[in-house]
Amino acid sequence: MEFLPKKNQARFRAVSIAISAFFLLDLALLGTTFLLSDQVKENAIVINLAGRQRMLSQRMVKCLLQLERSQDDLVRQASRQELELTYRLFDTTLQSFTHGGTTTGTEGLLQKVRQVSQPRARQLLTEAETLWSPYRSAIADLLADQRIDNAKLSTAVNLALQHNPELLNLMNQLTGNLEANAVNKTKEVHFLQTLMLSMALLSFLMVMLLMKSELKRANKQRETLDKIIDTINAGILILDEHDKVHAANQPAAQLFGYQDREAMLGLARTHLLFEWDKQLLGRRKNSVTFYAAMQTADFPLEDSQLKIVTISDISQQRSVEASLNKLAYYDALTGLPNRLLFEDRLHQGIFACKRQGSKLAVLFVDLDKFKEVNDNFGHHIGDLLLKEIAVRLRNHLREEDTVSRLGGDEFVILLNSISCIADCEKIVRNLLTALRAPFATDVVTLYQEASIGICIYPDHAQDEETIVNKADQAMYLAKRDSQRHYAFFSEIDTADA
Fold first, then answer.
1. Is the model's pTM score more than 0.90?
2. β-strand 486-488 against 450-457: which pairing, if any?
3. Which of 39, 98, 266, 399 has the fewest beta carbons closer than 10 A?
């Protein structure tokens, strides 16, 4: 005896072909999703390294200037050692971007980096390599001698002052380009996941339409349809006109934590699915919730108006998105916003100032002699100090202000809606007082000083990049002020005079 009548065998074969095609497409899309997710993670690593390149470039300029201006042999020796370290790290990282290779990661461990392949990023790297090549040769010649050659030092300093601003700009553009590519890859992941859900729903609808007439004929045919539905890799609920579960497949029962699908019959949809904080959540039998994605379609059957709901657990996807967002916008050590997030908030702050006619301030904070902490007590103590400094800065700012870590021992602060210079000075003095408080560990008690450069919008600059650069310049003036430890950009001309 044949399992299905001959007139239905063609339909059954069509159903089998549809399901097989869906499974093949599902596997292909799943593999593509994993590939794109891996690329997004790699981009996040390269974004962090590209952001670090700017810090390294600034440190090289700083070391060269210290070698040129300082008369203290110990300071010059320390500056030479730091120059050699930052120069090699900058060069190996840039070479890894261009050709692929291994460099030291932001955590101090070896990090494999694939060759950057995006056309615009490759162009930026080519321009950076062109600028870096003579600059690199000058530093290499300088470091090749045991004693500092003043002529070679002068050449290196001139090249640093000439090429460093454009190198910084290229590294910023590279970071932005890689970030945009990461966002596009994430959008592609979202699109593919939506496509997978849609294909599951379409496949199920095809099965339902092809088997509708056979449901009335015999229980065996209904059992066959149930088995087919159970093979679909998604939770499927059929809801009646009262929005209660009329039928479910076995994956849906497993998704919601029920032993079998019969246990779900009669349950209201609101018992299984609900919205919280604009997010769709699923509720399992043991009350544990998960992030859910849902597709719905109406399905009339005789005199009943049924609704087909396809559900997937996307908790892992949300977790990956949260991790990628944290990698892209927050500093891994301190948890503070990184350069990308700071630049976005600075852009919004300037927009608000233009609309309201108000002012804002950018504070460039550099820790004094922080390298000595790492050298004398180890990077572990240095990291603990950076974390504590991040907490102190955040605790002494308003809710609407932003403190960000640029990298190393450099922080930048955005003070929104300041009314006058005196208010800004008060905040700066409070921050310096907070940073001077003893920092105690099991090993040592430290006393940390800092230098703060201040740039006011719109008094000193009118665009984001110029504001930060002028705050950075003011910070170098603050380092020479042993009394206040802070300086405004407007004071630079007076100091020079």
1. no
2. parallel
3. 399
